[in-house]
Amino acid sequence: MSKNVLDGNSLYLRSIPAYASNIAKTRGGLGGEITVPPNSLEFWNCTGNQIEVDGKSCIELSIDNKYTFDKKNLMEYMEMVHQEYISNVLQVYETYDRKSDSWKNVNSVGWEVRYQRIKKRTFKLDFDMYMKVTQDTDTSKAPRYYISSKGDDEYNFIIAYCLIPNFTNIRIEKKKARDGKCTFTFYLEAVGLDNAKAVVDMAHTKAESKNLEKSIDELYDSVSKKVKRGSSGKVTTTKIYDRDPVVSAYVKKRAEGKCDLCGKDAPFMDAKGNPYLEEHHVERLADGGDDTIDNAVALCPNCHRQVHIVGTDEIKTALINRLMAYAEIELKLHGSTDSDIES
């Protein structure tokens, strides 16, 4: 199958390369510019006229065209690539040292800024677009066509600074209205991330297994540094979006081999002889939940699957009540120090 495919009113741009990105170290072009196949000119409603846009030689596009992103798709995409923003196993990324550019970094902080910017948009993610044409000095070669956007708009933010190059496809759907005007909606699709997730999960499991060898008191001393307890006993947390193997080990030790939802014994022992339970964040990390002991429980595989597939408010309430019970026990066992109490 060819890299880019035109199928009626759909255009598939596969594996967007690093030259379209401003975050990849291996980039070599102008971030945001993406090559499109010559046979797509009709798809884009090109007039055939040559114009100049910001000093670039371009093909004129119909003034009746409208270009936009789908907000729901963008949020789903950002959730799909969240782990890559933390682990950086697929690409080598640029590092931005200036404080004003820190959001451009591919890390948990940069991910959160991007995600919230998309989430808070209450209007459509429209943008202006141009189609640049370049001709090789060897005129026998066919010209190349690139799409990009004018100005510092949502297109450049998403294409140049959000997508993971080489592991993202773009699907463009063309919809023609009765008045003849066309809307082109861009959809991002993450591809090839399964292997990356496996590498990250393997490293996490190894670290967690090592931490399970520690006593629960030793684990508590480590995880308590991530929380601050007020005089009321309420836990206040710092937002951390990476999964901490120490937190995972602690909540499993705390459960004492029983599922925090159904209360039954773990279904089997793992290779190290530990009860097999799975960590679950009651409030999803992607929704702003914290990777701390006051937001994580240990579930048997059956309950964990149930929570993700048919999770209900009743289940969530039960887990929150379980966490509150744990918080009371931990407060009695460990107390609080003056430095832990909010002023």
The general outline is elongated
Distance between the termini: 63 Å
The low-confidence runs, each spanning 5 or more residues with pLDDT under 50, are 227-241, 337-343
Overall pLDDT metric: 83
Helix content: 25-40%
Largest sheet: 6 strands, mixed
Strand content: 15-25%
Number of helices: 9
Radius of gyration: 25 Å
Order of helices and strands: EEEEEEHHHEEEHEEHHEEHEEHH
Determine the structural class based on helices, strands and strand pairing: alpha+beta
Q: Order the strands across the largest sheet as they lie in space.
A: 1-2-10-11-6-7
Number of DSSP strands? 15
Number of domain modules:
2
What does this protein look like?
The chain is elongated. The protein has a 6-stranded mixed beta sheet, with helices on one face. The protein has 343 residues and is of the alpha+beta class. It is built from 9 helices and 15 strands. It folds into 2 domains: 189 residues, no CATH class; 146 residues, no CATH class.
Question: What is the fold's blueprint, element by element?
Answer:
Layout: E1 4-7, E2 10-13, E3 34-36, E4 46-53, E5 56-61, E6 65-69, H1 71-80, H2 82-87, H3 108-119, E7 125-127, E8 130-134, E9 144-148, H4 154-161, E10 168-176, E11 182-190, H5 194-211, H6 216-223, E12 227-229, E13 235-237, H7 245-254, E14 278-281, E15 296-299, H8 301-310, H9 313-334
Parallel strand pairs: 6-11
Antiparallel strand pairs: 1-2, 2-10, 3-9, 4-5, 5-8, 6-7, 8-9, 10-11, 12-13, 14-15
Any descriptors?
single chain, 343 residues, alpha+beta, 2 domains, 6-stranded mixed beta sheet, 5-stranded antiparallel beta sheet, 15 strands, elongated, disordered C terminus
